[in-house]
Each structure stands twice: as structure tokens, then as C-alpha cells.
Structure prediction request, 249 residues.
Amino acid sequence: MHRRHLIKGFVAQGACLICAAAARADDAHWGYTGQVAPKHWADLDRKNFVCSAGTQQSPIDITNPIKADIPPIAVDWHKGRGKLVNNGHTIQINMPQGSKLTRGNRTFELIQFHFHAPSEHRIAGKIFPMEAHFVHKDTKSDSLGVLGVFLTPGATNASFAGLAAAFPPWPGTAMAVEVDPNGLLPASLGYWTYEGSLTTPPCSENVEWMLAKEPVEVDPADIEHFLSLYPFNARPILSPNRRFILGID
Prediction:
């Protein structure tokens, strides 16, 4: 019981932290290798307790999903002036207010999106070169809705190419950019969904994950550009712990 209360407390704390993190660059007190690797996150800071004690951690391998009658995703994202940030862990784009994602009777506002290489989630064991995470906040609660989109080498994607050309090269640097997140959406929004967590500290378990089934092609050179800055920034796969993974075409 004591552990359950602790976990709930850290989840609530994490919901506030993600909003703050969207507006600033982070210091690099955690990472992906050595003594600051994911297996040590819970030891690095007390607020990261859930990274090891949680039971709904992300990412996971999407295997044997259940086909279900789940609400379709409706995206109403707008082109606007965002902030492109190298925060020491990834390249992140902080978005202006006004872009929404709707799922059933729930509405989420797009806060920021960022990238991981290789993909954090897997599909029946398959790893993609990159994964974009579009982080939304529920407009009526502290819950988050994250849409994950897999990126794969192929044709040039104008939206990603424009961002790649402006990636700030040093941690802690940022610049204003005109960004159209719609360019990184696949043609189809069929998706898998499950209840999970942030994949970075504090690993808060307040995330409704939506993973687009169709990957998006981007220029291999633009992937290489990201890899030159962050060659590896993916948390390892975690146990699904008997969670339901639902899917819709």
C-alpha cells in the first residue's frame, strides 16, 4: 500500500514536470549509457522512483494486439512559429497553443514533439530507425496523450527536412522556426493504443499511448543528421505486464 501511494505521488509530480520541460532545455543529469543509463534512472533522483517501481512503463513491444472498436484519432494541428530546442537528450520542438488531437470524447493539446533513435517501441520485434513523439496534454486533466510515429528511410519529407536543416548543434541551444507538424503524419491514422508512461525521467504513468501503424518516410541523410547529434537515445523495451494493447485500422 505504501508503495502504491508513493507511485501515485510521483505520477502527479511528473505531470507537472512534463509541462515545465516543454518550455526549457534540460541539464544532462540522466542519459542512455554508463552510470546514467535507464537502469540507473531511479537511483539518480528521488522523483524518478517510478522508473523502476512502476508497473505500466513504456516503451513496449507491440505483440498480439487485440483488434477493437476504439475511437478514431482526429488531428487538428496548425502550422506556426515554434521553438526548436537541443535539450541535451533529443531535438524537441515546442509548439504554440492551438493544435489539438481528439480521440472519442477527449481533447488533447499539442505541447511539443521530439525524436528518438532508434525507435523506442517495437512492432512484433521490429525496430525502426527513428520514432517521433507528439506529446499532448488532456485539456480537462493532467493526463497526457502521446502519438508515436515511426520514421523510416525513403523519400524526402519536407517538414522533417526543414527541421533537420535547422537542428541546433549544441545542447542548451534553441531557435525559433516555422513548423508544420502535419507533414510528419502518415496518410492513415490507424493505430495501436495502450496505457503507459513517459519514456524519460520521471517515467510518470499518466500517458495514453497511440502508435500510428503506418510509418513516415524521411530522407536517409536527414536521419543521419539527427544521428550525428544523438546516435542513441532510446529507452529499452519494458514488460507489458499483462496490459491490453488495442488496435484499429
Summary: Confidence is low (pLDDT under 50) at residues 1-28.
